[in-house]
Amino acid sequence: MGDRKQARDEEFQGFVVGRWPRLLRTAFLLTGEQHAAEDLVQSTLEQVYVAWRRVDTADDPDAYVRRVMINAHARRHRRRLKEFLAPKDDSGLTHEVPEGGDRMAQADDRSALLKALAQLPPRQREAVVLRYWEDLSEARVAEAMGCSVGAVKSNAAKGIAKLRAVPGLADMVTYGGRK
Question: What is the model's pTM?
């Protein structure tokens, strides 16, 4: 019996080690704050650990964990509606480093995008982050958010429209290598 528990713990630990950076980035985009993101990932992983047998045998463990994270975030947000503030500091995150380019301009672009994301209502932000950051299909986003594909399309479209309306943000988008 102890060997099975130890094997399960090792499987869980391997899962966490392999997924931690991506979970933290997604949580940061959902919460807009480093410490809140860490708390969200930690509470998500606590719930996942308790249900590890179900998660490990699920068709897509990543989707299961993503759904737990979205639900945990939604519960927190319902409790504190105005906690959804602009990111204060993302220095502790593991960043994906783009090749070459002006690092200062990239940092400014990132900051502007994070502030704009923080202004979106929670469901729009979730739809935009999962659809475009996580690059999930509309069906997978709908599954993660617990809503219809139509709701995902609507929330993502409204969120993108609000992001495009942010002064200067649309100018940062590169089309075919040119601005």
Answer: 0.61
